[in-house]
Amino acid sequence: MSIDIRKEMGLPGTVEQRIVYESGNEMAAYAAHQINYHVMGYFPISPSTEVAQFLDLMKANGQHDIVLIPADGEHGSAGVCYGASTAGGRVFNATSANGYLYMLEQMPVQSGTRFPMVMNLVCRSVSGPLDIHGDHSDLYFALNTGWPIVLCRDPQAVYDMNIIALKLAEDPEVRLPVLVASDGYFTSHQKRRVNTFAHREDVQKFVGEHPPEGFKHVLDRNNPITVGPYMNEPDYINNCYQQSQAMYRAEGVFDRIQKEYAELTGREYPILELYKMEDAEVAVFLLNSSAEIIKDVVDQLRAKGVKAGSISPNIIRPFPAKAITEALRNVKAVTVGDRSDSYGGHGGNMVIEVRAALQQFGNSTTKVISRIYGLGGKDFYAEDGLAMFEFAIDAMEKGFVQKPYDYHGITAGDPSKAPQRVLEPMKYEDLKTGLITVTQDEATGKINVRVPPLRSLTKKPKRIAPGHGACPGCGIFSGLELFFKGIEGDIVALFHTGCAMVVTTGYPYSAHKATYIHNLFQNGAATMSGVVEMFHERKRRGELDQYGLKDDFTFVMITGDGGMDIGMGPAIGAALRNHRMIILEYDNEGYMNTGAQLSYSTPMGHRTSTSNVGKHQGGKVFHHKDTAQIMAATNIPYVFTGSEASPVDLVKKGAKAQWYAQNVGMVYGKILITCPLNWLSEDKDGADIIDQAVNTCFFPLYEVEKGITTITYNPEEKGKRVPVGDWLKMMGKTKHLSKPEYAETLREFENEIERRWNMLKAKHENPYL
Question: Nearest CA to 568 among 521, 530, 518?
Answer without folding.
Answer: 521
